[in-house]
Design a protein that fits this description.
Elements: H1 3-9, H2 15-23, E1 26-29, E2 33-38, E3 41-43, H3 45-57, E4 66-71, H4 77-88, E5 91-92, E6 99-100, H5 108-111, H6 114-117, H7 121-125, E7 141-145, H8 154-158, E8 162-168, H9 171-184, H10 195-203, H11 212-225, E9 230-234, H12 235-240, H13 242-252, H14 260-269, H15 272-275, H16 279-282, H17 311-325
Parallel strand pairs: 4-7, 4-8, 8-9
Antiparallel strand pairs: 1-2, 2-3, 5-6
Helix pairs in contact: 13-14
The protein binds adenosine-3'-5'-diphosphate (A3P).
Residues 71, 73-79, 82, 173, 177, 180, 270-272, 275, 296-300, 304 line the site of adenosine-3'-5'-diphosphate.
């Protein structure tokens, strides 16, 4: 896995992080990646260190309005980043009746991968610089995080100027997407990682930012308690009815779109069919060493898990999903 391994496993070796890591439960993931269990979730050492930096440095108080996009890995992060940044780029219609795409402004997705437009706080922004200057970013600022709701800063949770959008996907497709994604970072010599072993880890919650259901339920409960603060979107609903979901997202972001025509333009310009064929997304490495830009766009469908799951895998994840979500009011239509 080369560069990914170096990026994931290394820290600054400061006494603080070294001491913390020495006290935490540890696991190996995909043969060579180190994971540590901190506050109920698994982290690469480098990401744990940047998470701590984020928690002591990030400020969402005061006059700056922030939007935080949040997700479990492989649940539609790239899509949500594209949509949110595109919507935030819209301008108010001259007659005041909503927001439109300003065709005089260059399409931000033509020159930037969605992960460059909206950076992941603990995986990018704070990874190489523990005290980044975020004050120059114009308000409203748009960030992303894979962190669980329980470890988000109180200032994010309590600020009335800060809103959260969480995207979720059914666990079956999430797992298959994660398996493909991690395989894409392996060398030909390493070959494909055994799906059975990856599945075992996923079901046990041992993967980056896992366990899956704790992550989902943290944001789900908050979206029930405070729907104006936390918007909860399902990947499958975006696939089924993108127009309706994009309209809702735009309104939540304070940029209600002026017409169905504008909505359709946003839907198409952020679609996987368009994005995966843009030069900017086809070549080169992403902001994460060892992961190509193109690996964030695969097929983007619902139900690909059926091409890989045995009946035992299906039953096991079905039962885990049922028992984990029982009484929560959340369910997945797993097609
Ligand atoms: P698949 O591997 O099932 O194709 P994340 O962005 O959280 O890393 O999730 C990646 C998954 O979202 C991949 O799923 C990828 O193909 C899909 N995806 C990326 N961009 C998308 C888009 N614009 N529309 C729909 N799905 C998209």
């Amino acid at each position: 896995m080369g560069d990914l391994k170096t990026l994931a496993n290394s820290t600054s070796n400061s006494p603080e992080i070294t001491s913390l890591l020495s006290q935490l439960p540890r696991a190996k993931w995909w043969e060579e990646l180190d994971l540590y269990l901190w506050e109920g979730a698994w982290y690469f050492p480098s990401v744990l260190e940047s998470t701590l930096a984020f928690r002591s440095h990030f400020d969402s108080s005061g006059t700056t309005a922030d939007f935080i996009l949040a997700s479990n890995p492989k649940t539609g992060t790239t899509w949500l980043k594209a949509l949110a940044s595109y919507i935030m780029n819209c301008t108010r219609n001259n007659d005041g009746g909503g927001y439109v795409i300003d065709e005089n402004v260059e399409d931000p997705l033509l020159k930037n991968h969605p992960h460059e437009l909206v950076k992941t706080l603990e995986c990018v922004t704070y990874l190489k610089n523990q005290t980044p200057d975020l004050s120059a970013i114009p308000s409203p600022r748009l960030f992303h995080t894979h962190l669980g709701y329980n470890v988000l800063l109180e200032s994010i949770k309590n600020s009335t100027d800060c809103k959260i959008v969480y995207v979720v996907r059914n666990p079956n497709d999430t797992f298959i997407s994660l398996w493909h994604f991690m395989n894409s970072a392996r060398t030909p010599e390493q070959g494909i990682f055994p799906i059975e072993e990856a599945f075992e880890n996923f079901c046990n919650g041992v993967y980056i930012f896992g366990p899956f259901f704790d992550h989902v339920l943290g944001y789900w409960k908050e979206s029930l308690n405070r729907p104006n603060k936390v918007m909860f979107i399902k990947y499958e609903e975006m696939k089924k009815n993108p127009r309706e979901q994009v309209k809702k997202l735009a309104s939540f972001l304070g940029r209600p779109l002026a017409s169905d025509e504008e909505v359709d333009k946003v839907v198409w310009r952020c679609s996987i069919d368009r994005l995966k064929n843009l030069e900017v997304n086809k070549y080169g490495m992403s902001l994460w060493d060892g992961l190509s830009k193109s690996s964030f766009f695969r097929i983007g469908t619902v139900g690909d898990w059926k091409n890989y799951f045995t009946s035992e895998m299906k039953e096991r994840l079905e039962e885990l999903t049922r028992s984990s979500l029982e009484g929560s009011g959340l369910n997945f239509e797993i097609l």
